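#structure-requests
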Amino acid sequence: MNKLGLIVGLVFAGGLGLFGLQLLNPPEPQGHSMTPPDLSEIEDGGLIAKVSVPADFSQNAVIGNRIYEAKCAECHGENAAGQKGIAPPLVHKIYEPSHHSDMAFIAAAKNGVRAHHWDFGNMPQIAGITDGEVKLVAVYIRELQRENGIN
């Protein structure tokens, strides 16, 4: 066997070994897997998050707020702060734009969504809501999120 063949074989074997080690010892998961916060100090139905409200909203966020109040606040609470035992806060890092896009909000409102980050149960679809309405609600939620350091 020549030296080049031996070197190629060793590099290949080393690469396979490193690949095997990564399979046996995967890195810690990145992103937004989370343990729901301790809510034991909050009364049932109480607001979960402390939400700072911007001094001014854009015109679209004002419209989105009206839609939110009519179709979302009953479950997600005032200023999207969530309600213990009912629905999660939307002003939370788990709903930042890089993890839940505006399209995720549209899909959830239009189709409902299976519970996957919180222990509130599945979200039902919102009857009669349009994509345009959800987009305006998302503008409102994003402005609340930015005010609370969620970008």
